[in-house]
Structure formats: structure tokens, C-alpha cells
Amino acid sequence: MLRTLAALLLSSSLGMAEEKPKQLVMISFDGAGSNPLWERSRTIAKRVNARFTYFLSCTLVIDRARAKTYQAPGQRPGKSNIGFAQTKEEALTRLDHVWQAKQEGHEIASHTCGHFDGRHWTKADWQMEMRNFRSILSSAWADLGAPEKEPSGWRDFVKNDIKGFRAPYLSTSDALEDAEHAEGFTYDGSGISMGPMLPEKQNKVLMFGLPLIPEGPERRNIIAMDYNLFIRHSAGVENPSRSAEFEERAYAAFRAAFDRQYAGERIPLQLGFHFVEMNGGAYWRAMERLATEVCAKPDVACVTYGEAIRQLSERGKETPSTL
């Protein structure tokens, strides 16, 4: 009798587990500059069966000698808040990483070009910067003096496959949303939400928000992004002597946020990073630990934003008017 009851309970629990959708985790990188970190991120992904979204800044595929070929709205030619590639060789290596990442199933999205705060930009200003992005990226191989290295299909990829956008400084506006739709972007990853939430459609663009998650001894909410942790932990000043401590705090926050969704509603979890090893690499190591532990689980998928949109659409009942 007890065996029969246990079997029934086990069967019931398995049935309930099967009803839960996969837990989606979206790990993204802003800027996508450092070539060593391109290599590192792609290696991580292969090891843990993950696919990442890279929000690329296009001045990083312009060599410094040609900096003045780029001009942002309201800025002088050659001005960029994140600089340019130092050499043509550096830029070409970065372009190769972009293409190889695409071939490996990762997603390339736009983080504009010069990383300016566009909160007061008009729709026309945003469109100018978005068109700069596609134009510069499209002709990048030729402009760097290596047209023979340009992969077949590169220009079609730039024109048609880059569908995601994240605004620098997460500065959004109605003008930005209007420009995104006009320029062919289908989703935006610039928002901030009170915890993990499903995306919502605004002006025909799907809006995602990086969640606020509890962090630290006092469990105060913070945007799930490395830069925000860097500011909280060390006021934006490098403190490598406490790197292990900061890694543990970041990892604990990421893991708790994951566990809460994994055991609960399984709303997609978004985590944002930069191609900078802040506080001695604490936040990248925390990300690697989390990805290693969760991405290979059979009921977890560490995916791009584009793949998350596809999977959410297939769920139907969980995406009423959002998709």
C-alpha cells in the first residue's frame, strides 16, 4: 500500500514537473569590445551549452586613424565615449569574433556606436545613430582594407539579422521606441523591471527589462548588471583586494534570483555584463559559475533574446498580449 502511494505521489510530482516550461536564462554583454573577452565568452558558451547576446558598439570596428569618419548626433566628428579600435588588426580580429559568434548560434544586437546618452535625442537623432551602426558595420571589412576577408553573407546579416537594441546607459524615451520600429528593430533590452518579468510590446517593439534582484547582506535590490554591482561594491573604483568577496556576493545574488524562478513561475531571468573585468574580474567569474551550474540542466536553456522570444511565443498561454 505504501509503495503504491509513493509511486502515485512520484508519478504526480513528475507530471507536475513536466508541466513547467524550461527556465530561460539570457546572458548579454554590452559593448563587446575586448578581443580576449570575446574569446573567453565564446569558450564559456561552448563548455556550458549557452548562447549569448552581444550588444555591439560599432565604433569598436573603426580604427583610430579613421575616427573622424563617424559622427554622432550633436557631436563633433571622431567623438566616442568608448573610443575606437587602436589598430586595423584589432578591429579585424573583433569582426572575426562577431562572425564566428553568429555562426555558433549567438546573437549580435546593437548598442549604437559612440555610447552617448540619448535621452533627449529626437526620433531623427536615434535613426541617424542606428543607420550609422548598420552602415559602419556593413562596410567594415572593406573600410579596414580587407574586403577579401569579408564573409559571404556578411552584409545580409547586418541588414536583416540584427533585430535587438539596447540603449547606452539604459536611457529610453518615446523617440527611441519610434525610431526602433522605423529602423527594423523588433525588441529592446534597455528597460528595468521590478524582478523578472515577461516582455511587453510597445509600438510594435517587444520591451525587455533587466530585473531588480536582492543583493548583499541587507538584500537591497539592484539592477542585475555587473556595472551596478561595481558601483555598489566599490563606488566604481577598482578594489581587486576584495575581488573574491565581490564575486561571492554577485554569485549569491545571481543564484538566488535563478533559484526563485526555477522553483517558481519560471519567468526568464536576464543578466547583463560588459566586456570589462571590473573589480578584478569578480562579476565575470560569478557569471561563469552560474552558467556552469545551470545552463546544462535539462530543464534550463541559456539562450539569446531572439531564441527566448521564439520559445515564449511557442508557449502561448504564458504570453497573452506581450508577443
TrEMBL record:
Keywords of the record: Signal
Protein name per its UniProtKB record: Polysaccharide deacetylase
Membrane spanning stretches: none
Position of the signal peptide: 1-17
InterPro entries on file: CE4 (IPR052740), Glyco_hydro/deAcase_b/a-brl (IPR011330)
Gene3D superfamilies: Glycoside hydrolase/deacetylase
